[in-house]
Design goal:
elongated, alpha+beta, about 65% helix
């Protein structure tokens, strides 16, 4: 996630939208938006390791979340 986020940061605009509902638009700096999700995923993953609850299912969920994250970044370009 960190490597792909770093690569996508080069191609994204300075500000990305975190929420867009009709006329409401909430932009944040792309540096914050790109690194926020991988950091949260890393913290959750470390907590799973500490609790001995890291399974193949959890790893699969992280791969799916990576795909969703990349899809949303590609749509922002």
């Amino acid at each position: 996630m960190f490597v792909l986020s770093g690569i996508m940061l080069l191609f994204l605009p300075e500000q990305i939208s975190i929420l867009h509902m009709g006329e409401t638009y909430y932009p944040i700096p792309s540096v914050l938006g790109v690194w926020l999700f991988p950091i949260i995923a890393l913290i959750v993953n470390l907590l799973f390791i500490r609790q001995n609850r890291l399974t193949k299912m959890n790893s699969g969920v992280f791969v799916i979340l990576l795909a969703v994250m990349m899809f949303s970044y590609v749509n922002m370009m």
